[in-house]
Write a structure and sequence with these properties.
The protein is mainly β and 120 residues long. The protein has one domain: Immunoglobulin-like (Sandwich), CATH 2.60.40.10. The protein contains no helices and 10 strands. Strands 1, 3, 4, 5, 6, 9 and 10 form a 7-stranded mixed β-sheet that branches. A hairpin with a 2-residue loop joins strand 3 and strand 4.
Length: 120
């Protein structure tokens, strides 16, 4: 069984908001944020001194590995519209390097998501 920090239930067809912004502090270093669903990478963000570094350079704040995942802020991911197959264990992994010391700081948060049939 996976340790879970949060449980979240969403309706199929609605939006799923995943948030680990509290783990991404301070933003004065090199930061890598990855989101996984059941171990599979769905979103990747990379920042230097609080500024997104995108691949390729003309993209938004991160790289999508899931067709319906997007982001509006560092550590925040939205999946929309939610499909029944989107249920599972989502994990946010944060690696921060730099600042006054050169050691890596690693943080993680998990959210178990249950998808319910549409209320309509």
């Amino acid at each position: 069984m996976t340790d879970t920090d949060e449980l979240q239930a969403v309706y199929a067809g609605s939006a799923l908001w995943l948030d680990c912004r509290s783990l991404v502090q301070p933003l004065d270093s090199l930061v890598q944020v990855t989101w996984h669903r059941d171990g599979q990478l769905i979103y990747h963000q990379y920042l230097v001194s609080g500024h997104p570094v995108s691949y390729p350079p003309n993209t938004t704040a991160g790289v999508m590995f899931h067709a319906r995942a997007s982001s509006q802020a560092v550590g925040h991911v939205t999946v929309w519209p939610v499909a029944p197959s989107d249920g599972g264990v989502y994990s946010c992994h944060v690696i921060m390097t730099g600042g006054d010391d050169v050691t890596d700081v690693r943080r993680q948060k998990t959210t178990t998501v249950y998808v319910c049939k549409s209320a309509v």
